[in-house]
Write a structure and sequence with these properties.
The protein is an alpha/beta fold. The chain is 38% helix and 20% strand. The protein folds into 2 domains: 124 residues, Rossmann fold (3-Layer(aba) Sandwich), CATH 3.40.50; 94 residues, 3-Layer(aba) Sandwich (Rossmann fold), CATH 3.40.50.1860. It has 8 helices and 10 strands. Strand 9, helix 7 and strand 10 form a beta-alpha-beta unit.
Length: 227
């Protein structure tokens, strides 16, 4: 039986490009079931959430027609458990919250591969000391990202580039900024960044680049053999 993997989007489903990329990174056949935390909102409700001026932790995501929007993490978390419960009911053995700023503060009987937890465990393990470069999805995340990563004790250099847009050249300035600030490792701190972006930034800077999507896929490959 083909194992079912639940992909929890912080915006709306479907996201065919993301699913295709993730499936291309896997070594075994799986069925990926998407659920977006904002799927059941009306257009008016979605507009109200995205246009709120008082977002404490803005997350960059997209509507089902591909329009980029920002929503507050607290609003996302209100709907997260409902998505988890639905995916568990549909037989998903592994769940992936598709966001690097969502931790594991929810209940699940399934295995949860949270990119947030993976990043914040792996990076200190492979970079015991040094200067860490982080690229986030929006300018208004820069200071929040500093707070998110300051627990590592690294010297931090942070830049921003939107995950949704044409071509990888839009990462040129952010990548060179981090290179010129002599970082030892770069983290692409958004699940929407793609392997093409990782390759572009790594070749431009000649610095190792960690991509949450591929990191999650590699660990998922370790798990799906037994599912």
């Amino acid at each position: 039986m083909t194992p079912k993997i639940g992909l929890i989007l912080i915006g709306q489903s479907p996201r065919p490009a993301l699913v295709k990329t993730l499936q291309g990174l896997l070594t075994h056949e799986v069925k990926i079931i998407e659920r977006g935390v904002l799927d059941e909102l009306t257009p008016d409700e979605l507009h109200a959430l995205s246009s709120r001026p008082d977002k404490q932790c803005p997350l960059v995501t997209a509507t089902r027609d591909g329009t980029p929007i920002q929503v507050d993490r607290d609003d996302v978390m209100k709907h997260m458990q409902h998505c988890i419960d639905r995916l568990e009911t549909e037989g998903c053995k592994v769940l992936i919250p598709a966001c690097t700023w969502i931790d594991c503060t929810f209940t699940s009987r399934a295995i949860v591969l949270a990119p947030y937890a993976l990043l914040h465990s792996l990076v200190p393990a492979i970079l015991p000391r040094g200067r860490l470069g982080v690229i986030v999805a929006a300018e208004n995340q820069l200071e929040l990202a500093r707070k998110v990563w300051e627990h590592t004790g690294f010297e931090l250099e942070i830049a921003a580039t939107a995950p949704y847009g044409e071509g990888t050249m839009r990462f040129h300035d952010a990548a060179l900024t981090l290179r010129d600030r002599n970082v030892d490792l770069i983290v692409l701190d958004c699940f929407g960044y793609t392997p093409d972006v990782q390759t572009y930034v790594a070749r431009l800077t000649r610095i190792p680049v960690i991509l949450p999507l591929t990191l999650t896929a590699h660990l998922l490959n370790e798990l799906i053999v037994a599912l």
